[in-house]
Protein: BNR repeat-containing protein
Amino acid sequence: MRRRTVLAGALAATSVTAAGTARAAGPGPSVTHRGTTRLDPQALYFVSFDGLVNNNSFQKNGLLTHQGHQYAAWYTASRNAVVARRPLGAGTWSTVTLPHRLKADDSHNVISLGVSRTDGRLHLNMDSHSDGFFYVKSVAGLLDDPGGTAWTPSVFGPVRTTLDGLALTSQFTYPQFVATPEGRLQLSYRAGVSGDGRCALAEYDGARWTALGEWTGATGTYTSAHGSSTARNMYLHGLDYDTRGRLHALFTWREQNAAVMCSRGGITNHDTGYVFSDDRGRTWRNDAGTVVGTTGGPDKVCVGDSGLVVDPLSPDHSLMNQESQFTDSAGRPHAIISYVPGRFGRCTTGYVADRTAHGRAFHLRKNASGGWQKTEIPVPLGSSQRTKLVLDRYDNAYAVFPFGRIAAASQASGYTDWTLLFDGGGLNAFGEVVVDETRIRADHVLSFLYQEKSTGTTPSALHVADFALPA
Structure:
């Protein structure tokens, strides 16, 4: 593996600016395994929807960094929710057990973390799948002075089933916290159920939560080569603010009606779309800049809106939902999408088996000229599950595959030199991992949370692995 790492680092010698002039580039991608720490020797383990509740990658922030400390959350073998912290680089974690126990063996019921910089609080949303959620926040200032504040249950408030009294929806799923450039905290979630849901936002200003409302619609007609569907939901690959304050969202659609597929053993996800917002998620625009929806207003982003699709794909290829996205230093969006390419057949009949046997991940990005480019990553998935994407300070791209494998490509090559840098050996990881997207920019370390493989409902160890990136 060392030989491959050195090669990848040597690939980026020069780059060309949009104006066509050559300039010196930073180093290419590389990873150096710094070590692995153990969060829990016996964390809760059960497999549902092909995933684990402690490390479903769509939870976005199950692991995050703020002010020199890293935070993690999970469920113990006794089903208790736990939140932990450590100084960056430390080998041990301090834990707090919260007064909440997981209510169902459902891997959707993840714990997501968020930070409101306006008041220095840590927020947790947990345990929901198309039903009610559980929410808790810390005392003000906890994250601003971690060294001077005791890490005890007393620093967290009561567990609530509202956002401090704000009720959202009785069909709540997929909480993702997103920090605004001003330090407010937004909560993205789905209202409704799979195949008939809407994306929505709430916002915390340091004093109170406000419901901004829904911004996508489930209505409209989608017609494939096989049939039509009149209901669906948007599945987000993420929500991310770039360095200029633009909010980016890449997504897929999932249709309610299986008639759109060539086989009922597939999955009704189709197309990769893109929208952005320049007013903190109040108004949404397509890739051309045309307004296509308003949060909380009558006009929602819908499947029939023009200019949404940036990479078309029919429902016959088992396209994965909620994969991954990241923005580069120039504010351009990147994403990982994965599906079964047409060379392996044009009709998947069992999406888990077909993705495991033939699935491939693709790096989709917006380039400097405003177009979209897609590159296949030459690493077979070997899994039905998701891959995570991050970029380092030099805009080199890293794809963290199931089982903790890491592939990378250099910005200087135009992301054409994807190479496997770490094969996951020794981790014994179950599948998907949860990446700390915030630590990359804090100290140039790629951290991810993973759980060891087990069987049945036998608890297994939960770890965080750290890899140094080019500094």
